[in-house]
Amino acid sequence: MILLIIVLATAALALLAVLRERTLRQTRAVPPGLQSDVTLPYNAEWTLYHNPFSLCSKKIRVCMAEYGVPYDSISIDLIETGGYQNISRDFLKVNPGATVPVLLHNGHPIYESHEQLNYVAGRVDEAGLLVPHGPEQKEVMAAWVHKTSLLGDHPIESPEATAGNAVAGLTIPIFASMVAKIPVLKIFEGLLFHRIKQRVFFFLLMKLTGLSKTLTLKPVNQIIHRADRAMAAHLIDLEHQLDQSGGPWICGQQFTLADVGMMVIFDRLREGDWLTRSLEDRPVLQGYWAALQQRPSYRQGCLEFAHPAVTEATQALVEIKRSGRWPSGLPQ
Ligand SMILES: N[C@@H](CCC(=O)N[C@@H](CS)C(=O)NCC(=O)O)C(=O)O
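Above: query sequence and glutathione SMILES. Below: predicted holo C-alpha cells.
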C-alpha cells in the first residue's frame, strides 16, 4: 500500500513538473517574414540562430557569405545533431515555432529562410549583386527561390511542390544513420515539448528500427521513391532553365539568390549520396554543380560547417551501397 502511494505520488509530481515545463516552453506556429513587433536581445546588427546540418541554415549562411555580411553566430542543436535544443525554453523565446534558421535584424526575428534571403537582399543589395535588375529576370529568380524552398511543417508529404520538399524525403537515410547515435530519452523530450509531433515520431521510429530496417519499411520506401521521382522532375526543370538562360546560372550570367537555394539542395544530395545518380549523363547539371562548388560561399556556408555525424552518415550510406546491403527496392 505504501509502495503504491509512493508510486502514485511520484507519478503525480512528474506530471506536474511536465505541465509546468510546458507552460514555460510555449510553442506555436509563427508567421513568415520580419516580426517588427518582437525585439529580442542582440549584440550585433545581424544574429543568426542556425544548425550546421540544416538545409535552410546552409542557405542563409551561403547568402550572408555571398554578401560578406558579418553576423553573430548561435549554433542550435537539433535532435539529429545531438539533442532538441530547438525546443529549449531559451530557443522557444527566439522562435516559438521551434525551427531553425532564425535571423535577427537589430533584434527583430525573420522567420523562414526564403524570407530571410529576400530580407537581407532588400537591406544590403542596392547594387543588385544577387538580384537581377530586369523585372522578367527578377520573376525567374523569385520562382526558383520558391522552388528551392522547404515549405510547411510536413515537407515530405509534398515533394512535388518544391525541390526543397523533395530533398527532405531523400534525407531520411542520413537522419536514420545520425539518430542511431542519439539516446532514445532525448527523442522522448520531443514527444513532450515539440510542436510538430509527427517529426518526433519519425525520429523515434528510425531510432527504434535502425538504419537498415528503416530503409525497408514500406512507408519509408514509398516516401523515398516519391521524393526521388519528384527530385528527378525538379532537376529536369533545372536543366531546361539552365538551357534557356544560357547558364552558367539559373538567371544566366548572374549568380542570384535562386542559385543559393539550389546550391544547398545539391549539397544535401551529396551528403545523402544521391549525386552520382542525379548527375549521371547530365553534363549541364554536372557543369552547374562544378560551378557552384567553386563559389567561396559554398565553402564558407556549407563545407566549413560539416558536422562529424553527417560525415559519418554519408560514409555509412556509401559503404552500405558499396557492399550490396542497400535494399534492392530503393533507388540508389
Ligand atoms: N520553412 C522553414 C523550414 C524550417 C525547418 O523545418 N527547419 C528544420 C531544419 S532545416 C528544423 O528546424 N528542424 C528541427 C525540428 O523540426 O525539430 C525555413 O525555410 O526556414
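Residues 135-322 form a domain with the Glutathione S-transferase Yfyf (Class Pi); Chain A, domain 2 fold (CATH 1.20.1050).
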